[in-house]
Amino acid sequence: MAPTPTVALHCLGFPTERLQQLSRASGLPVWHSEGDWNDSTTRVVLLLGHAWEDQAASYFALPYSAWIEVAALADQPILELVERAVAASFYASFTTITANRLNLAGQILVAIAAQRPLSEVCRDNIELALHEALCNALLHGNLQMDGIGDLSVDALERFSRNLMHRIADHDLANRRIDIICEIDTVSVTIDVSDQGGGYIPKPITEPKASGRGFELIAASCLSYQVLDGGRRVSMRFLV
Amino acid sequence: MDYTIATKDHEAQVLMTGRLTFNDHAKLRALIKEMLQNASKRQVLDLSALEFVDSAGIGMLLIAREELSNLDKQFVLRKATGQVKRVLTVAQLGKLITIED
Fold first, then answer.
1. A171: which residues sit within 8 A by CB, 6+ positions away?
2. Residue B76 belongs to domain spanning
3. Do B87 and A216 touch (CB under 8 A)?
4. What pTM value is reported for the model?
5. How far apart are CA A44 and CA A63, in angstroms?
6. Percentage of residues in chain B having pLDDT higher than 90
7. CATH number, domain at B16?
8. Looking at the partner chain, which of B25, B52, B55 has a beta carbon nearest the beta carbon of A212?
9. Which of B32, B82, B96 sits opposite A153 (nearest CB)?
10. Domain-terminating residue out of A70, A87, A104
11. What is the ipTM of this complex?
12. Domain boundary among A39, A63, A87
């Protein structure tokens, strides 16, 4: 029987006193890199405060299995996200503005591949589908934007202006995107959810500059479902 | 994503590198304007060093084709490999843009 993993908390750019409070409230110990931990069974939930993005790539690796951007969240919502993180193989929760800056799909793929060897095609499929689901959550979900639309530079310019306008809106930019990843012996399941108004894909009837995201998701995974009124997509991959 | 443009044998050759995603909207606008302004009738996009493309990247390639076509210029995609080649195939881009190995 496999040993039960130890889950612990760690933080970057976050007050130590607050981490200790969250540790007591969640019942999870605080992790230290030089501590006496079993590297093969320890999973670390990383709370991200300020000034961590330059080093982000080095933290999407074992023993880290969850990444929670704290932003303006109070302790209770953080504890709820930590609870989700503890229940998942991998978990990530970021604000829209941060998800727009990071290559989250690529980083999470690296973390999954460190735990489960994947073929090149499987890696490409997971990265593309996760990237497309994140783009949908970000643009059509949290920022409530339409796609580029018409096949013209003018339409692309309108899209650029609209994106900059929406991302500058504090409330929209701080809506969250959650990624829950479950790994079993034969498959990887990834759910991506947002806090937008719900986005239901429409079939493409004529050549347009947008609307191919779900076509690529469908081609990249074994199956997918759009759930919660269009606020969540669940994708399953055979590995 | 980054790109460089060189003119060779009466065609403009654009070497695209990195990842082409929805966040490259400003760079793609600049690239399309450069391709519209240069004198070559044939604009070739060399994708051999492009590592990743998403659905918005495909959409922006279609915008380039449409705008160049309006000026009677030909747009060609060349040497796609790996993930990029697979996405071009899934999106059936070959029905809309000339694709060369």
1. none
2. 2-100
3. yes
4. 0.95
5. 6
6. 97
7. 3.30.750.24
8. B55
9. B32
10. A87
11. 0.94
12. A87
Residues of A within 8 A of B66 (CB-CB) are 151-152
pLDDT tens readout for residues A83-125: 999 999 999 999 999 999 999 999 999 999 988 899 999 999 9
Query: What per-residue confidence (pLDDT) applies to A56?
Result: 82
Residues of chain B in Cβ contact (below 8 Å) with chain A:
19, 21-23, 25-26, 28-29, 32-33, 52, 54-56, 58-60, 62-63, 65-67, 82-83, 86-87, 90-91, 96
Q: Do A160 and B26 touch (CB under 8 A)?
A: yes
A181 sits in which H/E element: strand A176-183
Q: Cβ distance A220 to B55 under 8 Å?
A: no
Q: Are residues A169 and A67 in the same domain?
A: no
Residues in chain A with CB shorter than 8 Å from the CB of B65 are 151
Contacts of B28 in chain A (CB under 8 A): 156
Q: In total, how many domains does chain A have?
A: 2
pLDDT band at A199 (very low <50, low <70, confident <90, very high): confident
Phi (first) and psi of residue A187, to 5 degrees: -145, 160
> What is the pLDDT at residue A1?
56
Q: Find, in chain A, the residue whose alpha carbon is nearest to that of B63.
A: A151
User: Strands A232-238 and B2-8: what pairing?
Assistant: unpaired
Q: Are residues A137 and A223 in the same domain?
A: yes
Q: Which residues of A11-32 are buried (b: 16+ CB within 10 A; e: fewer)?
A: bbebeeeebeebbeebebebbe
Taking CB atoms and an 8 Å cutoff, what residues of chain A touch B56? 135, 147-148, 209-210
Which string of b and e fits A128-141 if b means at least 16 CB within 10 Å?
bbbbbbbbbbbbbb
Q: What is the mean pLDDT of residues B37-42?
A: 94
**CATH code for the domain of A143:** 3.30.565
* Cβ contact, residue pair B67, A152, below 8 Å: yes
Can you give the residue range of the structural domain that contains A45? 1-87
Chain A: closest CA distance from residue B67 (Å): 6
Residue A103 belongs to some domain of the structure: no
**Mean pLDDT estimate for chain A:** 93
The answer on pLDDT for A70 being more than 60 is yes
Tokens found for residue A35: 């501590």
